[in-house]
Specification:
The chain has 206 residues and is an all-alpha fold. It has one domain. The protein is built from 7 helices and no strands. Helix 1 packs antiparallel against helix 6.
């Protein structure tokens, strides 16, 4: 059941963000480009008076779904391995904090520049830290896909770097794309966890 919850939460988080961002973009009356705009500009009632509500609602709902997503990662708790369990718990803690920060970045949209900047930087640093510890925890599984560990490490590094720098439009778009990809594939791999474990045992016994 938890594997399905992780899978559905990952799918819903990605689909929800993309859907509401698209609705906000469709309503945008001005020129919009990854070279000239922040993603959060979609939530500005000055630039996007008719569509800002869509983006901000989407961010709030995505934050709530991510809270569920990180909670469901308990599925990856490894019996008898205290170090791995601790890393997974740290992953969840920073994931929960990052999800709350995401929600708050929409409660204080980009028109509230000071608070929005604080919560935006916090969400990237917190989620980046969560992703870093997720890689540290999941690498204990011999059948866990190495390419996804690499993607997780890259996502963590870029997320944290962006949270600290936060001054390049295109970098924010790349950061969010990596974040969505990692959550999406982690959900899929979690759903296939038992199948991957069985295949690994069969290869080991052969």
């Amino acid at each position: 059941m938890k594997r399905n919850l992780t899978f559905y939460a990952s799918i819903c988080a990605v689909a929800n963000y993309l859907l509401f961002a698209l609705l906000a973009f469709i309503s945008l009356p001005v020129r919009y480009s990854p070279l000239e705009n922040w993603l959060s500009d979609l939530g500005s009632d000055r630039l996007n008076p008719d569509g800002a509500i869509f983006y901000n609602i989407g961010i709030i709902v995505t934050g709530i779904i991510l809270f569920v997503f990180f909670t469901s990662l308990v599925e990856w708790k490894m019996a008898g391995n205290k170090k791995q369990n601790a890393m997974l718990q740290v992953t969840q803690f920073f994931g929960w904090a990052g999800a709350i920060a995401m929600l708050m970045s929409a409660v204080f949209p980009i028109t509230n520049e000071g608070m929005h900047s604080f919560w935006s930087a916090a969400l990237y640093i917190l989620l980046g830290t969560a992703f870093a510890f997720s890689v540290a925890a999941l690498r204990y599984y011999p059948y866990y896909p190495k390419w996804l560990l690499v993607l997780g490490g890259l996502t963590a590094a870029v997320d944290i770097a962006w949270g600290l720098i936060a001054n390049i439009y295109l970098m924010e778009w790349i950061t969010v794309a990596l974040f969505l990809l990692y959550v999406f594939f982690l959900g899929i791999v979690t759903k296939r966890k038992e199948q991957m474990a069985n295949k690994y045992q069969q290869r080991k016994a052969a």
